[in-house]
Design brief:
single chain; 114 residues; alpha+beta; 2 domains; five-stranded mixed sheet; 8 strands; elongated
């Protein structure tokens, strides 16, 4: 009886973890967005950062590259947007389609927006 109960608990736990991972991957992971095709690049005034905008299935994805290191990460995901308006306010502040991001830490993802 004890062994059966432990087996049932383990099976339920594995199923719950698997479902949780799938939900996170599909709805919350900003790095799991399809790559898309590049449509524009914008370099910051002092050339510290470059933001490359990609388009895929009515989704705009902004990828920030730190030029000194070459490291990149997604900072912007907008749904039902056809083309971005990108404006550098300063070296560390960019506005993408009315959303102000303080670089390098801020991120906008339409799935998490209020």
């Amino acid at each position: 009886m004890k062994r059966t109960l432990i087996t049932i608990i383990l099976v339920v736990a594995v199923v719950a973890v698997t479902i949780s991972f799938c939900v996170y991957h599909l709805f919350f992971c900003i790095n799991c967005i399809p790559t898309g095709k590049p449509i524009a690049s914008y370099t910051s005034p002092e050339e510290t950062y470059t933001i490359t905008i990609y388009e895929s299935d009515r989704t705009i994805r902004g990828e920030l590259t730190i030029n000194a290191t070459g490291k990149s990460r997604n900072i912007y995901v907008g749904y039902k947007e056809s083309y971005p308006e990108v404006c550098w306010e300063s070296e560390d502040v960019v506005i993408i389609n009315t959303r102000r991001l303080n670089l390098p830490n801020d991120v906008y993802d339409w799935r998490r927006a209020d």
